Amino acid sequence: MKGFPDARPERWLGALALIIISLISLGNVITRYLTGGSFSFTEEFSVFLLVVLTFAGASVALRRNRHIRIGFLERALPPKYRSALILFQALCGLTVLGLITWYGGKLAWQEYQWESLSPGLGLPQWWYLVWLPVLSAAMVWRLCQQTADRLTGRLTDEP
Protein backbone atom coordinates (compact mmCIF):
# COMPACT_ATOMS: atom_id res chain seq x y z
CA MET A 1 0.00 0.00 0.00
CA LYS A 2 1.55 3.27 -1.08
CA GLY A 3 2.36 5.80 1.62
CA PHE A 4 2.45 3.30 4.49
CA PRO A 5 5.58 1.81 6.04
CA ASP A 6 5.78 -1.87 5.29
CA ALA A 7 5.71 -4.92 7.56
CA ARG A 8 5.51 -7.46 4.76
CA PRO A 9 6.57 -10.64 6.63
CA GLU A 10 3.98 -10.01 9.32
CA ARG A 11 1.30 -9.21 6.74
CA TRP A 12 1.96 -12.48 4.94
CA LEU A 13 2.05 -14.47 8.17
CA GLY A 14 -1.21 -12.92 9.37
CA ALA A 15 -2.92 -13.54 6.03
CA LEU A 16 -1.71 -17.13 5.96
CA ALA A 17 -2.93 -17.72 9.53
CA LEU A 18 -6.34 -16.26 8.67
CA ILE A 19 -6.66 -18.40 5.53
CA ILE A 20 -5.75 -21.58 7.43
CA ILE A 21 -8.16 -20.75 10.28
CA SER A 22 -10.93 -20.22 7.71
CA LEU A 23 -10.20 -23.48 5.90
CA ILE A 24 -9.98 -25.47 9.15
CA SER A 25 -13.24 -23.99 10.41
CA LEU A 26 -15.01 -24.55 7.10
CA GLY A 27 -13.79 -28.14 6.96
CA ASN A 28 -14.93 -28.71 10.53
CA VAL A 29 -18.41 -27.30 9.83
CA ILE A 30 -18.82 -29.42 6.71
CA THR A 31 -17.59 -32.54 8.50
CA ARG A 32 -19.89 -31.92 11.45
CA TYR A 33 -22.85 -31.38 9.11
CA LEU A 34 -22.20 -34.52 7.08
CA THR A 35 -21.05 -36.93 9.81
CA GLY A 36 -22.23 -35.48 13.10
CA GLY A 37 -18.62 -35.46 14.38
CA SER A 38 -15.83 -32.96 14.12
CA PHE A 39 -12.07 -32.91 13.65
CA SER A 40 -10.25 -33.14 16.98
CA PHE A 41 -7.35 -30.91 15.96
CA THR A 42 -9.33 -27.87 14.86
CA GLU A 43 -9.53 -26.09 18.19
CA GLU A 44 -5.86 -26.59 19.04
CA PHE A 45 -4.66 -25.30 15.65
CA SER A 46 -7.23 -22.51 15.52
CA VAL A 47 -6.22 -21.11 18.91
CA PHE A 48 -2.55 -21.28 17.97
CA LEU A 49 -3.16 -19.59 14.62
CA LEU A 50 -5.33 -16.94 16.27
CA VAL A 51 -2.43 -16.01 18.56
CA VAL A 52 -0.11 -15.83 15.53
CA LEU A 53 -2.67 -13.69 13.69
CA THR A 54 -3.03 -11.36 16.68
CA PHE A 55 0.70 -10.79 17.13
CA ALA A 56 1.34 -10.44 13.38
CA GLY A 57 -1.52 -7.95 13.06
CA ALA A 58 -0.30 -5.98 16.08
CA SER A 59 3.15 -5.80 14.50
CA VAL A 60 1.70 -4.42 11.27
CA ALA A 61 -0.39 -1.92 13.25
CA LEU A 62 2.73 -0.77 15.09
CA ARG A 63 4.66 -0.24 11.89
CA ARG A 64 1.79 1.70 10.32
CA ASN A 65 1.15 3.77 13.46
CA ARG A 66 -2.40 2.44 13.75
CA HIS A 67 -2.53 1.38 17.38
CA ILE A 68 -5.21 2.96 19.50
CA ARG A 69 -3.97 5.84 21.63
CA ILE A 70 -5.09 9.28 22.65
CA GLY A 71 -3.36 11.67 20.29
CA PHE A 72 -4.98 14.80 21.68
CA LEU A 73 -2.27 15.28 24.30
CA GLU A 74 0.49 14.64 21.77
CA ARG A 75 -0.88 17.24 19.37
CA ALA A 76 -1.45 19.77 22.17
CA LEU A 77 2.11 19.62 23.46
CA PRO A 78 4.97 21.73 22.10
CA PRO A 79 7.41 19.72 19.92
CA LYS A 80 10.02 19.38 22.67
CA TYR A 81 7.56 17.84 25.11
CA ARG A 82 5.86 15.86 22.37
CA SER A 83 9.15 14.12 21.62
CA ALA A 84 9.57 13.29 25.29
CA LEU A 85 6.06 11.82 25.37
CA ILE A 86 6.74 9.72 22.26
CA LEU A 87 9.93 8.41 23.87
CA PHE A 88 8.06 7.63 27.09
CA GLN A 89 5.39 5.75 25.14
CA ALA A 90 8.09 3.79 23.32
CA LEU A 91 9.87 2.97 26.56
CA CYS A 92 6.64 1.65 28.08
CA GLY A 93 5.93 -0.43 24.98
CA LEU A 94 9.49 -1.76 24.85
CA THR A 95 9.28 -2.74 28.50
CA VAL A 96 6.07 -4.73 28.03
CA LEU A 97 7.18 -6.33 24.77
CA GLY A 98 10.62 -7.07 26.20
CA LEU A 99 9.02 -8.90 29.12
CA ILE A 100 6.77 -10.88 26.76
CA THR A 101 9.76 -11.77 24.59
CA TRP A 102 11.91 -12.80 27.55
CA TYR A 103 9.32 -14.81 29.44
CA GLY A 104 7.79 -16.24 26.26
CA GLY A 105 11.23 -17.44 25.20
CA LYS A 106 11.87 -18.86 28.64
CA LEU A 107 8.53 -20.70 28.58
CA ALA A 108 9.17 -22.11 25.08
CA TRP A 109 12.64 -23.28 26.16
CA GLN A 110 11.26 -24.95 29.29
CA GLU A 111 8.57 -26.72 27.27
CA TYR A 112 11.29 -27.90 24.87
CA GLN A 113 13.45 -29.19 27.73
CA TRP A 114 10.53 -30.90 29.48
CA GLU A 115 9.35 -32.40 26.19
CA SER A 116 5.77 -31.36 26.95
CA LEU A 117 3.12 -32.45 24.48
CA SER A 118 -0.01 -30.62 23.45
CA PRO A 119 -3.22 -32.02 24.94
CA GLY A 120 -5.14 -32.47 21.68
CA LEU A 121 -2.70 -33.88 19.16
CA GLY A 122 0.30 -34.76 21.29
CA LEU A 123 2.62 -32.45 19.33
CA PRO A 124 5.57 -30.81 21.09
CA GLN A 125 4.16 -27.84 22.98
CA TRP A 126 7.15 -25.65 22.15
CA TRP A 127 6.11 -25.70 18.46
CA TYR A 128 3.21 -23.52 19.48
CA LEU A 129 5.00 -21.42 22.08
CA VAL A 130 8.10 -20.48 20.11
CA TRP A 131 6.05 -18.04 18.04
CA LEU A 132 5.32 -15.88 21.09
CA PRO A 133 8.88 -14.58 21.60
CA VAL A 134 9.55 -14.48 17.84
CA LEU A 135 6.53 -12.32 17.06
CA SER A 136 6.90 -10.13 20.15
CA ALA A 137 10.53 -9.51 19.11
CA ALA A 138 9.18 -8.49 15.68
CA MET A 139 6.87 -6.08 17.48
CA VAL A 140 9.87 -4.63 19.36
CA TRP A 141 11.59 -4.00 16.01
CA ARG A 142 8.46 -2.41 14.53
CA LEU A 143 8.01 -0.23 17.62
CA CYS A 144 11.58 1.03 17.25
CA GLN A 145 10.96 1.81 13.57
CA GLN A 146 7.69 3.56 14.36
CA THR A 147 9.24 5.64 17.14
CA ALA A 148 12.15 6.73 14.94
CA ASP A 149 9.72 7.68 12.16
CA ARG A 150 7.49 9.62 14.55
CA LEU A 151 10.41 11.51 16.09
CA THR A 152 11.84 12.50 12.69
CA GLY A 153 8.47 13.52 11.27
CA ARG A 154 8.34 10.79 8.61
CA LEU A 155 5.20 9.40 10.26
CA THR A 156 2.46 11.79 11.25
CA ASP A 157 -0.01 11.36 14.08
CA GLU A 158 -2.67 13.50 12.50
CA PRO A 159 -6.07 11.80 12.16
Task: Please describe what this structure looks like.
With 159 residues, the protein is mainly alpha-helical. The protein has one domain. The protein is 74% helix and 0% strand. It contains 6 helices and no strands. Helix 1 runs antiparallel to helix 2 and helix 4 packs antiparallel against helix 6. The chain is elongated and about 65 Å long. The chain starts with 7 loop residues before the first helix and ends in a 7-residue tail after the last helix. 20% of the residues are buried. The model has no long low-confidence stretch (mean pLDDT 90). Belongs to the TRAP transporter small permease family. This is TRAP transporter small permease protein. InterPro entries: DctQ, TRAP_DctQ.
Query: What is the chains' assembly state?
Result: single chain
Poorly predicted tracts of residues: none
Question: What order do the SSEs take from the amino end to the carboxyl end, as H and E?
Answer: HHHHHH
> What's the rounded overall pLDDT mean?
90
Distance between the termini: 18 Å
Question: How many H/I helical runs?
Answer: 6
Q: What is the domain total for the residues? A: 1
What would you call the shape? elongated
Q: Estimate percent helicity.
A: over 70%
Summing up helix and strand content along with how strands pair, one would put the structural category as mainly alpha
What would the keywords be for this entry?
159 residues; mainly alpha; DctQ; membrane; TRAP transporter small permease protein; cell inner membrane; TRAP_DctQ
Question: What's the short story on this structure?
Answer:
Residues 22-152 form the Tripartite ATP-independent periplasmic transporters DctQ component domain. The protein is mostly helical and 159 residues long.
